[in-house]
């Protein structure tokens, strides 16, 4: 049996990942602020066990409690593989430095960086002594490598997430439990995040017209397509600590 923990699964890429994982050999535990009512019927039709845990991952105090609930649903003796997919994220605040609300900055750092760090920390502790395969997937962005005006917070947290992933790879190479951690950059997708980007004021985001053009020209990838490539990647041999880009596979 394979266990998958997916954050931010109520819509977008997270929703597509859950749908891609619907298989009798998988158990899915998804975390988000709201449940996705369609999952129960879909999971039943695919004979897949699925569980929902309500959690606001921008509230750091909730994370360890919800991870304890998650692992109470995992039978390590029956598990061939346990995978944590840190997908939840937000692009806001889209503001130049000096113009953003500090509360929005704090929320973004908590959700995009601190939450996956804390969840990964808990995951690695719980996996000690586990004899199956344990994998952490951090959903990152090309913004981690490219400074973009208006995205100072988003670029910074994704760069931090990449380095965090790199470092887990180095550390686990020295340890016997050897959790595999990777980051995956999905590129531009047709999700709610892209809608948020397109509606940003040009004074806050000078590249807004470029992203509107992506949408108008049909250049945005479908989340289902991205999810399929990600799950296919996870079935292959993974390089610990590596940041994978979807462009490598299309």
UniProtKB/TrEMBL annotation:
Q: What is its EC number?
A: 1.1.1.320
Asked if the keyword Oxidoreductase belongs to this entry, the reply reads yes
Q: Cross-referenced PANTHER family, in alphabetical order? A: SEPIAPTERIN REDUCTASE
Q: Which Pfam families would you find in this protein's record?
A: adh_short
**GO molecular function (one):** sepiapterin reductase (NADP+) activity
Chief site of localization: cytoplasm
Q: What is this protein called?
A: (S)-benzoin forming benzil reductase
One Gene Ontology cellular component = cytoplasm
Single Gene Ontology BP annotation: tetrahydrobiopterin biosynthetic process
